[in-house]
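Need a sequence for this fold. Nothing fancy.
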């Protein structure tokens, strides 16, 4: 009788220990869940890098190399052969399908801060994929991240048809103040050479209002 009671008591203690260990483990998992869950899309999009963002898209199925060139006020042109200036950096130089495992044809430049003055955004058709070449549509988007709220807003968007190899066109000239506010009266596509003029002052954009 004494042996039976001793064994029964041991089973109860064993079960209690297991239950306490399991409860502790579950509690730890619950406490750690907020730290292991990845941030939501909304959370990750609240603080995008850079302040002035220029993006270029073209047909993902075409092995065509289109280059994005940008220029901030009082800065040098930034593109594939000169990927960084005082303010802008080219973060992605896309060669088309050639040597590219990404499914998207896409280039992007970001600025560090927002300078007051005229910005220029150009496209250059560098390489074709067919002979004779078939014109290709390129889309450009310009966004600004508010320096106070870190909220991103799109300010310009357009599509341009590129038809000639070696062709460089100005898609946008536009003026921003230091808060990223767009002067709508400043928007134009008057040609400014960036790719060929990136080593001298010939390609510098000027504020015609000054």
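Here you go.
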């Amino acid at each position: 009788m004494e042996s039976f009671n001793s064994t029964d008591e041991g089973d109860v203690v064993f079960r209690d220990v297991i239950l306490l260990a399991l409860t502790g483990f579950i509690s730890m998992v619950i406490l750690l869940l907020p730290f292991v869950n990845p941030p939501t899309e909304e959370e990750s999009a609240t603080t995008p890098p850079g302040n002035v963002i220029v993006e270029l898209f073209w047909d993902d199925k075409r092995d065509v190399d289109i280059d994005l060139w940008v220029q901030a006020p009082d800065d040098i042109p930034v593109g594939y052969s000169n990927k960084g200036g005082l303010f802008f950096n080219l973060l992605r130089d896309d060669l088309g399908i050639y040597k590219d495992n990404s499914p998207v044809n896409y280039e992007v430049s970001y600025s560090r801060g927002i300078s007051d003055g005229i910005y220029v955004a150009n496209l250059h058709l560098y390489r074709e994929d067919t002979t004779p070449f078939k014109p290709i549509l390129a889309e450009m988007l310009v966004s600004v991240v508010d320096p106070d709220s870190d909220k991103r807003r799109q300010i310009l968007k357009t599509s341009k048809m590129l038809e000639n190899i070696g062709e460089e066109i100005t898609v946008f000239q536009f003026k921003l103040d230091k808060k990223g506010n767009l002067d709508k009266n400043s928007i134009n596509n008057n040609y400014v050479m960036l790719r060929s003029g990136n080593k001298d002052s010939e390609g510098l954009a000027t504020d015609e209002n000054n």
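For context: DSSP finds two helices and nine strands in the chain.
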